[in-house]
Structures are given as structure tokens and as C-alpha cells.
Amino acid sequence: MAVEVRAEPTPNPNAMKLTANQVIFEGSGSASFKKGDEPDHPLAKELLAIEGVDNIFGFQDFVTVNKEPDAEWDAVLSQVEEAFGKVYD
Q1: Least C-beta-crowded within 10 Å: which of 11, 23, 35, 42?
Q2: Rounded-to-integer distance, Cα 13 and Cα 16, Å
């Protein structure tokens, strides 16, 4: 099943919350990864490979992507969309 994702800005201009229509991080704990980490989670791995992504935080049906200050959201979000498609389509 293809995942549907809704992007929502946060008070931090370098962070975007992405909420999915299904659970993407299993379990009761949160997951946090930064650039340079090598996570086992397939989506986390794809997101951290995107140029301009600094770190991510995930819990159940959402992930917050934090970009580097000089990265542009238009470029980052199009690649985030591709990452979701690659992992969940």
C-alpha cells in the first residue's frame, strides 16, 4: 500500500513534520538519527542520505525532518517525497 504523507511546518523554520496515514516507526519508543548515523530503519536511512538533511526524529506515524540552515525546503521536500515512495510503494 502506498503511503500518504502530509507536511506541516513547525515553529522551527529548519524543521518540517511529516505525518503518514500508517505507522512508520513501530513500537512505543521514538527514534532519532543524525547525519553520519547508519540506521537499520529503511526510511531513516533514505532520509539521512538526502543532501541538506541534518537529523530526523520519528515516532509511530510521523517523522520530523530537520534541514541544514542553508538548505532549501523545496529541494529537500521533493527528495523526502521520493524517499517515502522508494520505501513504501
Answers
A1: 11
A2: 8
